[in-house]
Write a structure and sequence with these properties.
Elements: H1 10-21, H2 27-34, H3 39-50, H4 79-96, H5 107-118
Helix pairs in contact: 1-2, 1-3
Pfam family, one: rve_2
GO molecular function: sequence-specific DNA binding
Protein name: IS3 family transposase
């Protein structure tokens, strides 16, 4: 017996990704909060978001978007919200995003190691 595919709205996807990237919870906590079936699904949305791809809502066999199309999928209502999101992303990029080309380190860890070697 096959499982029925669950459809998530684009708004839910962007909110879940935004919460995770701003440090409001772990993958599991965010999945629980938004009733997302698996952390793998959330990781895929994060990967798409970081690759500047639109998170769409898919229904049935037809892949159609719901709502309006935007460049990055999020409209900020205030300057403070925009600044907070940018700061959260910079923190994620520098301190929590492991990179294979840096031997599975964050950019900040690689920088500290390079400074220690130079000293």
């Amino acid at each position: 017996m096959s499982r029925k595919e669950k459809s998530y709205s684009a708004e839910l996807k962007y909110q879940a990704v935004s919460d995770y990237l701003s440090g409001k919870g772990s993958l599991r906590e965010i999945c629980r909060k938004y009733k997302i079936r698996s952390t793998r699904q959330l990781r895929n949305w994060i990967k798409m978001y970081n690759g500047h791809k639109e998170l769409k809502c898919y229904t049935g066999g037809n892949r159609m978007t719901k709502g309006r199309k935007t460049t990055y999928g999020h409209t900020f209502t205030s300057r403070e919200q925009l600044i907070s999101t940018i700061e959260s992303y910079i923190d994620y990029y520098n301190n929590r995003r492991y990179q294979h080309r840096l031997f599975i380190q964050t950019p900040m860890q690689a920088h500290v190691c390079a400074m220690n070697r130079a000293a």
